């Protein structure tokens, strides 16, 4: 009796807790990983006990205030999506001989959670991944390390952290968790299709993808593709077909439309994001365009972790309301696209190129300009004439 597909987040806590390996995570018709129960199930019901959607999860907060944070090391900051908060927290754990769990993007097309024990292994975890990551067995790996007394930092979406908390079933003083301000998780299959269609058009292989290339500035997100021949192609994220679909919410996981984590009651010790909405009149002893992280300390452990960064980070305390105003996903879920079902139906029957052309490619500029000034009645008359 697992949770229904409509609310399943794909956190994989059920698959990892199963003592006989009877649950596997498999892609559904939209490309999202879902648990499948095999015949060797022994009806122990441990899977039901760890599912965050079948029971009340561990929620904390709200934080009393928000922190605007940036790494003092310009190299760390430049390599990070915003201000470098994740890298600083990870460095703190690695310096203690600990382990950091986070998502990496392999060859620009597949995101999965891995464990890093060195600064070099950590590098691919930096940067936004606008696709759902496969958790794999990282909850099990984290528990093994925690039981050995190893310090662990585990980062992920709020639903993944809630799944981890329920899987562990207890608190650990040497575990620090970070969830993310999340717009919603796109289908892994759609990202693969986008990459493969781009390779087909360009006639060369993509080896890396950056969703938030900061070379054009923090507030000017660019999607940058790196090809096997060393060349790159960069464009404003929301002018690419994948970025446009992400912004529309047309290929997000179904549960994202009713996400229970889009508020300031968080499952993690810390919440990380971009500090959009930071008062423009606020004078900071740093360059905003280099990136500013938003950090919410949701409990005493989170506050203690922030204090440990005082010699490596600039920090300014800000009202929580300011952070919420600039990050709507701290107040409500992303609105579902009314074209979602049609998009996936076209993707399934006609392929990505057709779905991209029909749903993700804007009409020519004259049509877009006309749509802003014509009344609905005038548009109906024009449609009849054009037919």
What can you see in these coordinates?
This protein is an alpha+beta fold and 387 residues long. It is built from 15 helices and 13 strands. The strands form three sheets. It has an eight-stranded mixed beta sheet, sandwiched between helices. The protein has a three-stranded antiparallel beta sheet with strand order 8-9-10, covered by helices on one side. Strand 6 (152-156), helix 7 (158-168) and strand 7 (175-180) form a beta-alpha-beta unit. Helix 12 (340-350) packs antiparallel against helix 13. It is globular, with a radius of gyration of 22 Å. Mean pLDDT is 93; it is low at 365-371. Keywords: Iron, Iron-sulfur, Metal-binding. Residues 1-28, 33-61 form the 4Fe-4S ferredoxin-type domain. One of its GO terms (molecular function) is iron-sulfur cluster binding. Pfam families: Fer4_7, FrhB_FdhB_C.
Could you give a short account of the major beta sheet? 8 strands, mixed
Overall residue-averaged pLDDT value = 93
Radius of gyration (Å):
22 Å
User: What's the oligomerization state?
Assistant: single chain
Topology order in helix (H) and strand (E) letters: HEEHEHHEEHHEHEHEEEHEEHEHHHHH
pLDDT under 50 segments (min length 5)? 365-371
Count of DSSP strands: 13
| Neighbour order of strands in the largest sheet | 5-4-6-7-11-12-3-13
Proportion of beta-strand residues: 15-25%
Helix run count: 15
Q: Sum up the overall morphology in one term.
A: globular
Structural domain count:
2
Broad structural category: alpha+beta
Helix content: 25-40%
Termini separation:
52 Å
């Amino acid at each position: 009796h697992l949770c229904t597909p409509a609310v399943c987040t794909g956190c994989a806590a059920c698959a990892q807790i199963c003592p006989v390996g009877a649950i596997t995570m498999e892609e559904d018709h939209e490309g999202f990983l879902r648990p499948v129960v095999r015949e060797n199930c022994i009806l122990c019901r441990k899977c039901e006990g760890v599912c965050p959607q079948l029971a009340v999860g561990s929620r904390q907060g709200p934080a009393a205030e928000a922190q605007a944070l940036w790494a003092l090391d310009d190299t760390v900051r430049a390599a990070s999506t915003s201000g470098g908060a994740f890298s600083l927290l990870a460095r703190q754990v690695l310096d203690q001989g600990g382990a950091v769990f986070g998502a990496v993007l392999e060859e620009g097309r597949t995101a999965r959670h891995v464990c890093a024990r060195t600064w070099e292994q950590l590098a691919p975890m930096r940067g936004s991944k606008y696709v759902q990551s496969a958790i794999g067995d990282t909850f099990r790996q984290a528990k093994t390390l925690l039981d050995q007394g190893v310090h662990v930092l585990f980062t992920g979406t709020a639903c993944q952290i809630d799944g981890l908390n329920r899987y562990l079933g207890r608190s650990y003083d040497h575990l620090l968790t970070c969830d993310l301000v999340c717009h919603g998780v796109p289908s892994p299959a759609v990202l693969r299709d986008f990459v493969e269609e781009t390779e087909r058009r360009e006639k060369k292989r993509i080896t890396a993808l950056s969703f938030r290339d900061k070379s054009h500035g923090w507030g000017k997100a660019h999607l940058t593709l790196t090809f096997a021949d060393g060349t790159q192609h960069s464009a404003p994220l929301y002018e690419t077909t994948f970025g446009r679909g992400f912004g529309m919410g047309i290929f997000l996981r179904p549960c994202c439309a009713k996400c229970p984590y889009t508020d300031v009651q968080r499952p993690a010790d810390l919440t990380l994001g971009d500090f959009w909405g930071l008062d423009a009149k606020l004078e900071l002893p740093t360059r905003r365009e280099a990136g500013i992280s938003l950090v919410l300390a949701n409990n005493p452990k989170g506050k203690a972790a922030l204090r440990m960064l005082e010699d490596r980070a600039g920090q300014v305390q800000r009202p929580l309301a300011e952070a919420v105003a600039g990050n709507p996903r701290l107040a409500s879920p992303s609105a579902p696209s009314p074209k979602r079902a049609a998009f996936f139906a076209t993707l399934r029957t006609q392929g990505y190129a057709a779905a991209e052309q029909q749903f993700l490619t804007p009409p020519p500029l004259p049509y877009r300009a006309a749509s802003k000034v014509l009344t609905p009645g005038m548009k109906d008359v024009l449609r009849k004439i054009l037919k």
